[in-house]
Design a protein that fits this description.
five-stranded antiparallel β-sheet; 24% strand; 234 residues; 8 helices; alpha/beta; 13 strands; Rossmann fold; Arc Repressor Mutant, subunit A
Length: 234
């Protein structure tokens, strides 16, 4: 069964090319040329992933992303940004996008990004529950609770948190996080991991003493702070 994707982009010619290419790659792609049409389709249909352009005729892709996340929808979103526009990339990630790709792009790279996102969303590394202080991460249901309350995370945020709490108290390099969480090699100019860490800090809140749960280690990576140790269960 083919995965259904929604491409929200007003470039009809580009979508025609992508639709044919993605079909060969095993995906069924549908299109929407405006934010309004895209949100209407999302409300009526279920999609495995949404490809969302930043520049749209009625509203920006950021407004669409804000509406999607505000509604509680956690469907993975890959944003298409202008080449070299770092601000748009970071902004999209901060608002809950799972990844981004700059135009113009190689369709093969788009397909690779889509597969990496879907693979992360669907294949938990066994059903286990990891508890670190007041945080409980269930890899089977892919849910995170803070003091018993559900914390809504994107696919990438969940996997990033899992990578950090699984070895709480140990520094994990950016190179390792990029490969394990994003499915690509780390680039010094790619701020994706840093932005996703920022989102996790914001969503999880600080520790009881007001300090960050996730500490940056200059020039190396990140460490999840644990005061009571890590507990594992099923």
């Amino acid at each position: 069964m083919q995965d259904r994707l929604l491409v929200i982009d007003d470039d009809v010619e580009l979508f025609g090319l992508l639709q044919r290419f993605l079909k060969r790659e095993g995906f069924q792609a549908e299109s929407a040329a405006t934010v309004a049409a895209g949100l209407e389709k999302v409300a009526k249909n279920g999609y495995a992933l949404i490809v969302l352009d930043v520049m749209l005729p009625d509203k920006s892709g950021f407004e669409a992303l804000r509406s999607l996340r505000a509604s509680g929808l956690q469907t993975p979103v890959l944003m298409l940004t202008a080449k070299g526009d770092t601000h748009d990339r970071v902004r999209g990630l901060e608002m809950g996008a799972d990844d981004y790709l700059a135009k113009p792009f190689d369709p093969s790279e788009l397909a690779a990004r889509i597969r990496a996102i879907l693979r992360r969303a669907r294949v938990p590394a066994g059903h286990s529950i990891v508890t670190v202080d007041d945080i409980e991460l269930d890899s089977g249901s892919r849910t995170v609770r803070r003091s018993g309350e559900i914390v809504a995370l994107t696919t990438v945020e969940f996997d990033l948190l899992a990578a950090l709490v699984g070895v709480a108290g140990t520094v994990v390099s950016r190179e390792s996080l990029a490969l394990d969480v994003l499915g690509r090699h780390f680039s010094p100019f790619d701020r994706s991991i840093d932005t996703h860490v920022y989102n996790l800090r914001r969503k999880l809140g600080p520790l009881d003493d007001g300090t960050d749960r996730i500490k940056g280690v200059r020039g190396t990576g990140y460490l999840y702070v644990s005061s009571g140790g890590t507990k594992r269960g099923r």
